[in-house]
């Protein structure tokens, strides 16, 4: 947790993020460090920026969870519909055979193959 001059505490859930911030702080230019110590408005701006980034990361985490739920729902729906699709394909093939037999019967037993209708 970081506390900037009595402002809101901001926690970082991932250690990689804090490592990145530490690295950025080491590389930061001297005037930024000076501004943190000397200019209260700069601290406020940095605090607001960090709060915005935290809010964005929380929104992205919520969106990720929502997408996982949608994916699971779609997979369940697919699993429920696959038997129906198999039955539909079977019935379609049976109907195609019946149509071929009927057409063949009308044309004196000639072989008939329906094209472009197979699934």
From TrEMBL:
InterPro entries: CDK5RAP3. Coiled coil: none annotated. Belongs to the CDK5RAP3 family. It comes from Rhinolophus ferrumequinum (Greater horseshoe bat). One of its GO terms (cellular component) is endomembrane system. It holds the Pfam family CDK5RAP3. This is CDK5 regulatory subunit associated protein 3. One of its GO terms (biological process) is regulation of mitotic cell cycle.
